[in-house]
Every structure is written in C-alpha cells, then in structure tokens.
Amino acid sequence: MFVEIKNLKKYYGEKENKISVLKGIDMTIDEGSIVVVLGPSGSGKSTILNIIGGLETPDEGSVVVDGKKISGKSSAEISRYRREMIGFVFQSYNLIPNLTVKENIEICQKLGDHVIDINELMKLLGLSEHKNKFPRHLSGGQQQRTAIARAIVKNPKLLLCDEPTGALDYETSKDTLRLLETIRKKYGTTILMVTHNEAIGKMADKIFRISGGEIAKEIRVENPQSVD
Ligand code: ADP
Ligand code: ADP
Prior knowledge:
Layout: E1 3-12, E2 19-29, E3 34-38, H1 45-52, E4 60-65, E5 68-69, H2 75-85, E6 86-90, H3 101-109, H4 118-124, H5 140-152, E7 158-162, H6 170-187, E8 190-195, E9 206-211, E10 214-220
Parallel strand pairs: 3-8, 3-9, 6-7, 7-8
Antiparallel strand pairs: 1-2, 1-4, 4-5, 9-10
Helix pairs in contact: 3-5, 5-6
Bound molecules: adenosine-5'-diphosphate (ADP) (2 copies).
One adenosine-5'-diphosphate is lined by residues 137-142, 172.
C-alpha cells in the first residue's frame, strides 16, 4: 500500500474552544492511482492533504507514505520528505510573478535529484510557446499548467492537489484534469485530489466522501472514466 492512514485525528483550539476537525480518518491509496476526496467546504479535506504533505502535523493516528511513517518525524526529516516525495498543486497557482514560465519551473527542478527534463515537460503541458512569458500574461489554464509543471518537474511520487480546478472554467478544468491523467500514465505519479466538485470524482480509481471530519463512504470505481 502506497499511502496508509490510520485513525487520523486533528484538533484546533484549546480547551472549551477545542474543535475536532478530523475524527479518525482511515484511508489507503494504491501506488499510481488517482484518488479523490469529495466533500463540502469545511469538511476537513485540506487538513488531510496538508497532513499527508507534511505541512501540518496530526494530533493522533499514523500516516505512512511509501513505507515510511511521516507522523512523528522531526521538522528536518519532514522538509526532506516534502522535497523528495511530494508535489503540491493549489487552486491559487502560487507562481512567482517576476519569473517567466520557464524560470518558475527551473527553480523547482533544482529541488530534486530525479528530475524531469523541462523542455519535455513544457511540451507535454502545452507551455513551450509561453516559456518566456510572465504569469500575469497567461490565462488561468496556462497558469495552472505552469503550476503543475512546477509540482511535477522534480518527479515526486505523490502529487497532492487542493481544488486544482477551483478557479477555472468548465472546459479549462477538463483540459487540466486530462493533463493530470497524462502525467499519471507517463510518470507513474500517484495523485490525490481534494475537491467539492462532484464531476472530478468520475476520473478517480477511488473516491472518499468526507463529511464533518469523517469518511462517510469509500467507493472503489470499477471503470474510471477518462475526462471526456
Ligand atoms: P475543507 O478543505 O474541506 O474546506 P479544511 O480542512 O480547510 O476543510 O477545514 C476543516 C475545518 O477546520 C474548518 O471548520 C476550518 O474552519 C477548520 N480549520 C482549518 N484550519 C484551521 C486553523 N489553522 N485553525 C483553526 N481552524 C482551522
Ligand atoms: P487556455 O485555454 O490555454 O487557458 P486561453 O484560450 O484562455 O488559453 O488564452 C488564449 C491566449 O490569450 C493565451 O495565449 C494567453 O496568453 C492570452 N490570455 C488569456 N487570458 C489572458 C489574461 N488574463 N491576460 C493576458 N493574456 C491572456
């Protein structure tokens, strides 16, 4: 099992103000699969993603990724884990405004050892002709594709996407999801997406429905559909 999460709990606040955001989450993710966590705003999706990505620490439970337990690691070990294993894609593209598309990707490439060739990746993502543009001169879809290139260029084993199409229109969202499928196929990347968008669930191998910090339902999809 590539990712194994057991009884994951997270609280915010102290004493009488303490709220329980994750109430004992169990999840498994196969290597090379696409898994979608679906749920309404505030249900705890980003918190799960951030814990798996080492951006937040759990209060209880265990998270094992690629055979390594990440809960309980030191912050130096977590930084290394994040650098070597994880790529992040957010709804807000988080590009560096004063760097071109190519430069934005290059600085991320420097973080990894087993990197993907930048020209190959820009071609795959339809960015070659935009490589010398600054983010402000790109459409939303192009900005998100640049963000995906930045996340993928160090060839992470696990790509974590938080509402990756949240700021995009319907057609551009479909293009973006198609590219994520292509990346999974070409590089074997395991992809975990969290979203409130039901339509994204269709492309998953497995869907976890979350509600109020609990898994309400786990659905293994027999015939995942490609994005049409
Ligand atoms: P989702 O991604 O499903 O919208 P989140 O994981 O962002 O949900 O948040 C789940 C709950 O945790 C929400 O009620 C949110 O207000 C709360 N929460 C998230 N981060 C913090 C924080 N740093 N401090 C306090 N509460 C938080
Ligand atoms: P895509 O479908 O790849 O997102 P669009 O069809 O939206 O691309 O954009 C077509 C062209 O218009 C692009 O080459 C892009 O450079 C330009 N463009 C789109 N939106 C903007 C914008 N907000 N600011 C500047 N240029 C833009």
